[in-house]
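Technical appendix A lists one of the benchmark inputs used to test multi-chain prediction within the project. The record comprises two sequence entries:
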Amino acid sequence: MSSATIKRLSELAKTVRSKNAGVDRITFDIIFEDRNSYELVKRSKVLTRETVSKLYGFDPARITDFVEYDPALAIKFTILRERPSGSAGDADIFGAQQYAPLLDVIVPLD
Amino acid sequence: MSEGSGKTLRFLCPNGHLGFAPLKVESFDIGVATAPDFILADSGSDDIGPGPLGSDTSTAPEQWQRHDLEKMLVAARKLGVPMIIGSAGDTGSNSRVDLYVQMIRDIAAEHGLAPFKLGYFYSEVPLDYLRRRMDEGERITGLDGRGDLTTDELNATDRVVAVAGVHPYIELLNRGAEVIIGGRSSDAAIFAAPAIRAGYSEANSYYLGKVLECASFNAEPYAGKETVIGTISHDDVTVTAMHPDQRCTVASVAGHAMYERSNPFFENVAGGTLNMTDCVYEQVDPKSTRVTGAVFEPSEQIRVKLEGAGKVGERYMGFVGVRDPFTVARIDEVMEWAKAQVRERFGEPEEGGYELHYQVYGRNGVMGEMDPLKHQTAHELGVMVFGVAATEKMAEEVTLTGTRQMFYARLPNTKGTAGGVAFPLDEVTRVSPAYRWTLNHTIGVEDPLELFQLHTTEVTAGVAPELEVAQ
């Protein structure tokens, strides 16, 4: 696929972030500025329970929620943490830096 | 206070986590000048890890907590409107409520404020109470995939707070409180309580709370600690940014519904669930968005959320750097060697009663196993070592062994035979004790006030004992 026909998620989304949702979960938000980009990514199916499980290498059963949220032009999913936030060995108490791999997800434009 | 069809009430929120960083004065003053009916803020968060609840401390410095309480109290008393703070001092434990109550007294004395009625309530739940309820057969149900609370887990717990719904706030308002300091509470309940009490629907009231609890995080461009005002009517909720450069847009308000939450559609509070699935967002002026369509679904039984933290042990930290490409490539073997030396001294972690953790920065220190690039290593690594054990002495020895033994790792065929890692400090450092979240559960109650102790008191200028002494 040539570069003219693909884009990285970071080029299409306005916001890509992760954050604690309570003490046992981390939630990921991918928010778009325009409806076209949002619909494009939704249609492309590059973000699904299966694709993000594969990307992060975790069991899909760890995903507790996966929603496409039209009012905010957002795709959102939530996972169970390996250990509660702030436990010894947790390197990200706020869960704030777990989104990075999403930035490079390749989205086909056709 | 206005009630009845077509009437509105306006709620000012200057800070989404009072104390974590100070509120911004400019937009607060602009908001206060519009004469809101209530001034409110949430001061709590479970984002900060289990340490503050377990050790009964705040992460916020007192001067920042005081800064915001002073701004809010002086403005509220000047306007003659209620001021409500929930989840005092990050955790909402009893000592944090007492701390805020004292600050309110001090500020009132300092400013010579006219007497007012202060209401406050405690949220801590005695461990014995939970033990008794469990003995009686009550299931304390786990949230987010956790099982029911066990006696072992309860025994490992130092402190538990119950997360209040609207009930203690409504009761204190009924008793005439003009200023309320709440223990641990649902963020949304702080705002919903006075709205419900004034006769607005639970749906609009909880939605109002949901949209206001993080202050300007519901506005754009992104800027924290700026004031927003929520207006409730019988038909809708409208939220308006006060900062001259911020706007509450459909995107920013709808986007906020999903911030820090598992999904954007449901918010559970003691007594039911706010369903936002069919919310409709409309821009009504450049700075304001109107929301309709929220639904409140009452629950059959009132279940109150419990948060608990327990101490795991004392904790030390060490740090090493690695530059030799041969060692970088075999860093797992280096850590394994050091772990083996700790095992030789103390046995396996379980039997020896310790934890030893490594975070390899330059590889996957931030994300651990979830990092897709965990097999790509930078040309140099920084490895943080954490040791946890029951006593300070043992935690130090575990950490020192786990750190220093990396220097002596026996990698076959290594060229460097005078030390395998670099020490920026040839020592380990004591850091805060390790705690963990032991409770993220709910318990059923017949009386929604059952877990909370409510108090009211008159605050008259000059009662602050410290100031009396100083004078």
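Residues 34 and 73 of chain A are 7 Å apart (CA to CA). The longest strand of chain A covers residues 13-20. Comparable benchmark entries are summarised in Table A2.
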